[in-house]
Write the structure tokens for this entry.
Amino acid sequence: EDSHAELLTVRTAIRQIAHCATLAAFDDRVELAVVLEALKRELQEDRSGAGFMAGGVTFCALKPMRSVPFRVICLLGMNDVLFPRTDRYLGFDLMAQKPLPGDRSVREDDRYLFLETLISARDRLYISYVGQSQRDNSTLQPSVLVSELLDYIARGFELPGRDIVKDHIVRIHRLQAFSIAYFDGADKRLFSYSAANCLAGQQAQASRAVPRQFIKTALPEPEPEWRVLTLDDLADFFCNPARFIVTRRLGARLPVEEEPPADEESFALEGLDGYIVKQQLVEAAVEGRPEDAQYLLLKAAGALPPGDAGRVGWHDASHQAKQLVKALAPHVIGGFKPPVQIDLRIGEFRLTGRLSRLTQGGTLVSYRCAHVRARDMLRHWVQHLALNIVRPDGCTAESLLVGTDAMQHYQHVESAESVLIALLDLYWGGLRMPLRFFPESARAFVQAEQANQHGRRTVRSPIESALDMWNREQSTSGINPEKTDPYFKLCFGDQPAALDTEFERNARAVFGPILAHIVTTKL
């Protein structure tokens, strides 16, 4: 009987080795010594006990007194509602009806266990949760404890180049394990060692129709009237060169996908509506208009949610607007001067427009009640160059761009005319062929490159920083990934190949001078 049991154990171990080889899709020949070593380990594991901390990797539930320090701790299934658990009491539980300090709460126990787990992780802490719904792929929230941890990290730490911490530490996996994102190297955080999945991803990628290039050959030379443009026209071009050539030069527009009306009325002042309200509040405060009158005006216009929700939203928006006004106040005392008309002859080009928001001290000021985006910098930069060329009486050659996250001080540009000529040359070429320039990705690329040049090593290389901005999901600052822009997709596709050497050259030509002439102060 003992011999039969031992034989059964050996056969079971051999079957387990064969099963592992099948799962790994491994069918090569190996040396006998390798098989014997694998069989020896399998037999040793079979004889070992199955208690807590029995081997190199321990699987267990979160329970008290198990918070032993480990080098790596992985928490799985940290979804909302599931953890921490909710206190449930029976209807006849008199203690639950009249709780006292010190009564046990499973929810508070779970919060304590989570804290113990954080302290126990020595090298790595891995937290996983289901982030998308299997029904409609909508976003699912993690446990409230995970959200609190992310908020705490975001408040206490920052990354070079003003990267958002949450976007850096949260990794969003793809729906399928054979997604090409795990093998193309665009995002270093997504990788796989599966040869089978790699082959499947390549086949799936090859089966897709290769997008045709929208403009294959250069368009004819533009008419002379295209050399006459406004400051806003030039800024619009660099904010989205692909949209400019399609809509302005070709006179075509892509259909806009309108979202259906919400099933339920929103009682929160957020998104674009919230930004418009906050921006109007800032405008009113800078111009000296009373806040109460602005509230009545927005309420009558239907810009605020009804009832108490509208008042709460108003107070929140007013608080954020006041923070920006506080930063602006020292620079806009006395209001603004009348706008200065601009009419410049730059080589073969003629630039017209006006400089508004010139303070009594002669400083050009731009502001928005939101984070400073790349397109905001481009619009302000065009006006800043015009200011340095014209130099109206009583005006300085410096300017300010203020957002809720930072104040950017733009310094005097000695070669403003040559910088503007370089931009106009890019504009003229971009009227014949779409210019490979994507503002947010370009800013990320040049910021990382300049940081490396000044000895401030960034987490990623310049092109990796640009690819991260190109591929990232919508960030907490509301910036959408540029690869999803319909005009960029039409002209260049949505693949990382769009960020080639031509993109790098254009990024340096545009954002190089900008970042070299600004001093940023965080707010």
Q: What stands out?
A: The mean pLDDT is 84. The chain has four domains: 2-47, 70-90+102-204, 271-317, 340-522.
